[in-house]
Amino acid sequence: MSDAAASLTPLGVIVLGLLAEMDLHPYEMMRLIRQRGEDQVVKVTNGTFYHTVSRLERDGLIAEVGVDRAGNRPERTTYALTPAGRAAAQEWVRRELPRFDRPEPFRVALAEAHTLARAEVVELLSQRRVALAASVDEHRERLANVVGRGVPLQFLVELDRRTAILGADLTWLDGLLTRLADTTLAWGVDELPDEVLSRLAAYRKAHLS
Prior knowledge:
CATH topology of the largest domain: Arc Repressor Mutant, subunit A
Order of helices and strands: HHHEEHHHHH
Strand order of the largest sheet: 1-2
Number of strands: 2
Largest sheet: 2 strands, antiparallel
Oligomer: single chain
CATH superfamily of the largest domain: Winged helix-like DNA-binding domain superfamily/Winged helix DNA-binding domain
CATH architecture of the largest domain: Orthogonal Bundle
């Protein structure tokens, strides 16, 4: 059996995440990606985007559910997420969320983490925290050692920066884990209040029509 999750790209996961919310045609997907700033997380060009959509359809992760035409516009194909696509996207998130050595895929996994159950997300992020905390300790010790040997700061600014960034990431992650422990925080679409879902639906209708 082929490993569908292993063949996914970060952009492919973003597309699957959009279709997990509702059926869309490619133009709508692209607009949502830009409106949500996800084009700042992964590089998106028209060529890579349409190639990704085509590949997802070829692999059976999305399926065509209709073709429509509005006025003089070209025909637009609407796609839906298949069960295989949902499973592959969730498995990809499971694999990337605890990893510490792949920062760019982690950002996409974090953006799509709401597709997994709260308890599973907490467990995966807790695994990542272990590796992150170890790296913070290692960087702080290394910086202290070289400073203690009298190495001038001008030669240590990047190590100092990296140490600070890792420490801030750890502080942020601890805060997120604390928030996730609060079950009054809605997690996943099923836990969103009806008024929030209505507001999102109205926004999509206004901006994607």
